[in-house]
Amino acid sequence: MAVIEIKDFKKSFGTKQVHDGVNFTVNKGECLGLVGGSGAGKSVILRSLIGLEKADSGSIIINSIDITRMSENNLIEIRKKVAYVFQNGALFDSMTVFDNLAYSLRAHTKMTHDQMDKKISDQLDEFGLLSAKKLYPSELSGGMQKRVGLARAIMMDPDVILYDEPTAGLDPYNTLKIQELILRLKAKKVTSILVTHDMPTGIAVCDRFVFLQNKVISENGTTQELLGQPNSLVNQFIKGQIV
User: Fold this and answer.
1) Distance from C-alpha of 87 to C-alpha of 191, rounded to nearest angstrom
2) pLDDT bracket for residue 243 (50, 70, 90)
3) pLDDT confidence bin for 69, thresholds 50/70/90
4) How many domains does one find in the chain?
5) Is residue 166 one of the residues assigned to a domain?
6) How far apart are the C-alpha atoms of 151 and 147, rounded to whole Å?
7) Residue 134: burial class (beta carbons within 10 Å; 0-12, 13-18, 19+)
8) Is 238 a member of any domain?
9) 220: alpha, beta or left? (left if phi > 0; alpha if psi -120 to 50)
């Protein structure tokens, strides 16, 4: 069953056309790798999935609802169930880790402080970050900031998580930690899309890949299928033949 359906999606910025009929689906509990060369428009697709960019035409359907013409107020309900993990963590610098994670809970729930404290503490503990609860982002390493960003993204128990280059710039230890967290969420049947140039991470966590090239999806297949084809776009991308 498809949780996400993108149909004939077209998007331009001024005279520059970025997408010219993009089509793909993501099934429930699946982690889809969205890959392609730099500037192909991968992040534009992610941003469009939460209404930060508007399609020129086509449809974006999430849980059977087309969000492309939704008002900003209606998109708030979608964003509660579709989490975006930004490349840089995107934490509020003036807030502690606790307050960063509490932000959406305060805005969208009626939880008491004690209930929030337990939920946040449990999540930080699961991510190995409990000791960072009272720290500010400036006191965290880059890897810790990204892990806190992921913890914040799932505070509302989303159905879908959109990962935008979550391992970019990380050392091997923190890259592995992010992989483990993605796999842990995947085991809970969370549907996700991973945009990445880090193909070892993509191969480790993704069930399927779609390759964005020349403004459309040029290749679509399971990880095993595409890795088994020496001339697949994914294999060419891994070898650095596509940038």
Assistant:
1) 19
2) low
3) confident
4) 1
5) yes
6) 6
7) exposed
8) no
9) beta
